[in-house]
Amino acid sequence: MKLEVRDIRKSFGDREILHGVSFEVVSGRAMGFLGRNGAGKSTTIRCLMDVFRQDAGEFYLDGKPFKVTENRVGYLPEERGMYQKNKILDQLVYFARLRGASKADATRSANEWIDFFELGEYKNKPLETLSKGNQQKIQIAQAFLNDPDILILDEPFSGLDPLNSQIFKDAIADVVAKGRLVIFSSHQMNYVEEVCDDVTLIHEGDILLSGDLKALKRQMGQNKLALSVDGMTNSQVGEAVRAQFPQITLEHIEDMLVLDTHHAVTQQDILRFIAAQGWNVARFGMYEPSLNDIFVAKVRDHQ
After folding, report:
1. Going by C-beta distance under 8 Å and a sequence separation of 6 or more, which residues neighbour residue 290?
2. Angle CA 17–23–24, to nearest 5
3. How far apart are CA 135 and CA 128, in angstroms?
4. What is the pLDDT of residues 35-80, one digit of tens each?
5. Measuring CA to CA, which residue among 33, 51, 58 is closest to residue 154?
6. DSSP letters of 70-87?
7. 0.85 cut: is pTM over it?
8. What is the β-pairing status of strands 56-61 and 150-154?
């Protein structure tokens, strides 16, 4: 399957929130929809889910207009909402049946996901008796009911500890392996980097980039080297490198110095210089930016 988001625009009052948002998502690859709070992620997803009606643009699934009611979609909204007084199993069965499952299939699916998230001992207890983290897992479980073809998760890692985050990542990996279409929005870059094959970055209602994460990393790391030296600050190393190679562009990123050679200086030139200094090198090699580095760079270029 291929989901196409084509030139989506949405305004609230006189303020346009989405400025012609376009990107694609294909099945069998998890796509991370990234951006800061207020960037337009949830608004885009709510338009896709027909919670809001966009002012312009369309959504297409395999070349045909997408209608959420005509597809098997699992959806975790950013603003959670389940019944605090009701038993966990009862309400998951209820949600599964709302999506068209028979009572037997709904019960089977609900039990399957309760067990997957290791909450079997709580299934006949009201939701309000669970910890916040376990309540979040139940919220997530409802999105997976009935084996949806399309899974849309809005800020799904909110409230999960590292162990439960790993269980959830395993669930996403299983769905992707089945060839399903998966989108999840987040401002937590580290989780997306672990899970996603593709990313789309949105900032203030504009798409900054979209594509294969590995390819984007290679592209943004091209001609760049990472260097750090024990016993020296990045500034000290940078001053020495710049004095020898004034044509190099230097950037301080976290605990390393990133050298953009622009093809003017080779890796061997840098190595010979380092050897001549007698430095105790902690790190030297091709630079691969993190997703956070990519996002910061793109936002900076956009401003």
Report:
1. 189, 193
2. 145
3. 8
4. 888 889 999 999 999 999 999 999 999 999 999 989 999 998 877 6
5. 33
6. GS-EEEE-SS----TTSB
7. no
8. unpaired
